[in-house]
Amino acid sequence: MPSAESPKLSRRRWITTTSGVIAAGLVKTQADAIQLIAQEAPTDPTKVPGRLVSEIGSRAPGEQPKRLIRAPALSSSSRTPLADLMGTITPADLHFERHHAGIPEIRFEDHELLVHGMVERPMVFRMSELMRYPQVSRIRFLECSGNGGGVYNRERMPTEVTVQALDGLLSTSEWTGVAVSTILREVGVRPGANWVLAEGGDSAVMSRSVPLEKVMKDSILAYGQNGERIRPEQGYPLRLFNPGYEGNTSVKWLRRIEVTDQPTHTRDETSKYTDPLGDGTVRQFSLVMDAKSVITFPSYPYVLPDKGWWEIRGLAWSGRGRITRVEVSTDGGRNWSDAALEGPILDKSTVRFRHLFEWNGRDTVILSRATDETGYVQPTVEQLWEARGIRTSYHQNHQRAWKIARTGEVTFGLGDLV
Ligand SMILES: Nc1nc2c(c(=O)[nH]1)N[C@H]1C(S)=C(S)[C@@H](COP(=O)(O)O)O[C@H]1N2
Ligand SMILES: [Mo]
Mind listing the domains of the chain with CATH numbers? Predict the structure, then answer.
């Protein structure tokens, strides 16, 4: 609706202005003139032609969610702005990143994958060859095993922390590629083989062992992400994608798969990604990401402007299969109610949950807890630390809590629970 103040562009003024800018040599064509005037158009979009088509789209100028960069060094990460997103799919340019030695520059035409070891026919595949095999697409989450671990300091729990800083090493995409099983059938796995070693072509030459049974079941050699070629940050032109497994096993810039009888015990699975349990033993190959949920709204730094009805929203996921239930508590964990799950509920993918909450304007703590199809329930922080010890920051999938103060201010509330 044009307001009384909004200066309207009359048809006459439009024509004079258009020919005016062309005559003035500011722009050459009418299309350019329309662009220029549309940009300068003050208010009423029904009175001026809109911007024209473009080869690549862009976000609205006022909508620019960004990844949060943690360590601007070679070993670096950036986190998905979970609180800014809707639904479950992460826009590719907001997918979290975790690189041990930066992003290598690799050309599609030059890339090769060697598959060897305990196989009948060792083979080298070029990308064009891989793309001729049957193509599969799966919507799956990817989560770093360090997600949620970084901010924990057991002496001093932070309260002013966003869900992005806390749990932003989580993203969901539609991954496209060839099933690993297709390629392993092509090379012929020899009897006695039990593991594969996956090796990246970055300067970290990151490598991890993955059980053969797993990769035969549902792993993908992925070259596509949300409908387009996978991004350089996600492993262009090829990554291994192990659904439900800790992110570091999904080796990016994948250049080699070796079929073995034993895990290789590479640097990346001995010096890292092992969990000291506190009793002198260490948990190694903690590969599956257990069920977890996070409330993305309301969360810090949001301030509830008013009491009344609010929809609590969040994401739940499990590396063991489908999420079957998400419960929400709005009284610090005393009472729990089932949240609504927004389908389709996919295997090893994120699901959106929501729960209507009438806030009475008093101090409270809200929490969520997820259950997956195996019956596993997301633990409390005490349960997790009792089972796993407190010496590891990996796999911190315990229930998260947000404290709502009388002022409406929302802060990370776990500190009050332990
Ligand atoms: N070659 C290689 N693969 C890699 C990494 C790496 O540094 N190099 N980082 C791993 C880690 S720790 C994670 S959590 C995921 C992150 O994938 P993303 O950057 O696509 O989000 O990739 C894994 N694969
Ligand atoms: Mo990771």
Answer: 11-47 (no CATH), 72-273 (3.90.420.10), 292-413 (2.60.40.650)
